[in-house]
Amino acid sequence: MDERGFFSEVFNQEVMSSIGIELAWVQDNHSLSTQSGVVRGLHFQTQPKAQAKLLRVVRGAIFDVVVDLRKQSSTYGQHVSVELSADNWQQILVPIGCAHGFCTISTHTEVIYKVSNGYSPDHEGGLLWHDPALGIDWPISPGDALVSPRDTLWPRFNEFNSPF
C-alpha cells in the first residue's frame, strides 16, 4: 500500500493447487448487510450441487462459522470460527460437506465469495444457527439477531441426518 492505494492478488489457482486445493470456481457472489447483527446461515448444498466457498470481507467485519457435516470426518459436528474483516484481509475456505454462516459485527458489511457450484434451491439445506449443541459462541443473542424467516426453521443438529 502506498499513497495511491493498494493492489491485492485475492485468488491464484496455481497457489491453491500447490497446497492441494483443486476447485473450479463457477460463480462470485456479493452480499451487503447494512446493519450489525445480521445472521446468514448456517447453509449448505447437497450433491450433486454441493458447494465449496472462498470468502473475504471487503467492507466491515463478520464473525464467520464453518460446521463440519462430513460423517467420516474426525471433526464431524465441530466448528471453527474466525473474524473476517476488510482490515485483516483474511479469507476462509469452506469445504464441500460443511455448513457455513456468519454474523455481521459492523454496519455496512460486504462479503464477496466464490462458489464451486451455482445456487440450487432443490439442494439447499441448513442447521439452526444458534443450536446450543453446536457450541458456537455467537456475538449476538438469538433475540437480537436479524435473521431471515428461512434461517429460523432449519433443524437442530440432533434432528439432522447429514447427507455428507
From TrEMBL:
It catalyses: dTDP-4-dehydro-6-deoxy-alpha-D-glucose = dTDP-4-dehydro-beta-L-rhamnose. Its EC number is 5.1.3.13. It comes from the Bacteria. Pathway: Carbohydrate biosynthesis; dTDP-L-rhamnose biosynthesis. Belongs to the dTDP-4-dehydrorhamnose 3,5-epimerase family. Catalyzes the epimerization of the C3' and C5'positions of dTDP-6-deoxy-D-xylo-4-hexulose, forming dTDP-6-deoxy-L-lyxo-4-hexulose. Homodimer. NCBIfam families: rmlC (TIGR01221). PANTHER family: DTDP-6-DEOXY-D-GLUCOSE-3,5 EPIMERASE, THYMIDINE DIPHOSPHO-4-KETO-RHAMNOSE 3,5-EPIMERASE. This is dTDP-4-dehydrorhamnose 3,5-epimerase. The lineage of its organism: Bacteria, Pseudomonadati, Pseudomonadota, Alphaproteobacteria, Caulobacterales.
